[in-house]
Write a structure and sequence with these properties.
Layout: E1 2-6, H1 13-22, E2 26-30, H2 34-37, E3 47-48, H3 62-65, E4 71-74, H4 87-105, E5 110-116, E6 125-127, H5 138-153, E7 160-166, E8 168-170, H6 179-188, E9 193-195, E10 202-207, H7 208-219, E11 226-230, E12 235-237, H8 238-248, E13 254-256, E14 270-272, H9 275-283
Parallel strand pairs: 1-2, 1-4, 2-3, 4-5, 5-7, 6-14, 7-11, 8-10, 9-13
Antiparallel strand pairs: 10-12
Helix pairs in contact: 1-7, 4-5
Length: about 290
């Protein structure tokens, strides 16, 4: 199977590509920077086509431009992790819709797009795909809107749409200002104190390698469609996550709890219901 991966050099994309290659897929990858892509060990095993999504859309046949893939895993999204900026509408929402619509109109039949747990908004507890989406920040609202646009497009075009809602991830290539990369830096520098929030918030975390594996399984099947929570289904407090991380690193650092306020764009306790994902992993024939 030939799979097109957008956002190939991003946090998720760089991990997805090796998984697709291990499954025997032919990978066509794209991002804006060929020099950045060339630094990855998988670069010589794929076909890389540099491309930047155009704000006004593209008049050329993008399905042919990307060598007519059998499936597409769309990871590209500019400007993260700034979740509260209006550019998610101005620079992402409509350009991405035009981009995906072009591919679908010219022949793409199998599309997987990454969404976000922020589509659920300020709802607490275990979040199910069938529940309401109530995004409370521009990023979540833009992602939810793109999902709705693509659902509406299905009335005109025949294609399979899988919408993988990502929760919290950690691992190699993560933004350096995220919690665990900052903790890694403190460990390397042998810091005595680590500043963080109160740590009482409950979240749903997965290592990035497992996220990449799940995304490949989602993309390479057509049995389960629609929104799919890509998550662990197991809530953990941020404090416990940090304490476990320190224990595994055999590091001793005093946690300065309450130094930072809790984010105002997410509830104190939420995690994903992963039963749909588990059903997909256990019921599809793809191993």
């Amino acid at each position: 199977m030939k799979v097109l991966v957008t956002g190939a050099t991003g946090f998720v994309g760089r991990h997805v590509i090796p998984h697709l290659l291990s499954e025997g897929c032919e990978v066509v990858a794209t991002s804006t920077n060929v020099e950045a892509a060339a630094r990855f060990p998988w670069f010589k095993q794929i076909r890389f086509i540099p491309y930047r999504i155009k704000p006004e859309g593209d008049s050329q046949d993008l399905f042919a431009f990307f060598d007519k893939p059998d499936a597409m895993l769309h990871l590209a999204w500019y400007g993260l992790p700034n979740y509260k900026a209006s550019f998610h509408f101005d620079q992402n929402l409509f350009p991405q819709y035009y981009f995906l619509k072009n591919l679908i109109q010219h022949g793409l039949h199998n599309l997987t797009v990454t969404g976000t747990c922020f589509e659920y908004g300020m709802q607490s507890g275990c979040l199910q795909e069938e529940g309401l989406t109530q995004p409370g920040n521009p990023y979540g609202l833009a992602k939810e809107s793109l999902h709705r646009f693509l659902q509406a497009l299905k009335a005109e075009q025949s294609f399979t749409l899988k919408w993988a809602r990502l929760f919290y991830m950690y691992g190699d290539g993560q933004n350096s200002n995220s919690l665990l990369p900052l903790l890694d830096k403190a460990i390397r520098e042998k810091a005595l104190v680590f500043n963080m929030s109160g740590g009482e918030q409950l979240r749903d975390y997965l290592p990035i390698d497992k996220v990449a594996h799940y995304l490949c399984r989602i993309a390479l099947q057509n049995t389960v469609e629609g929104p799919i929570n890509c998550c662990s289904g197991q809530p953990i407090s941020v404090r416990r996550l940090v304490e476990n991380y320190l224990q595994e690193a055999n590091a001793s650092i005093h946690l300065n709890l309450g130094h930072y306020p809790y984010p105002d764009y997410e509830p104190m306790a939420f995690w994903g219901d992963n039963r749909k994902l588990i059903h997909l992993l256990t019921s599809t024939s793809h191993e």
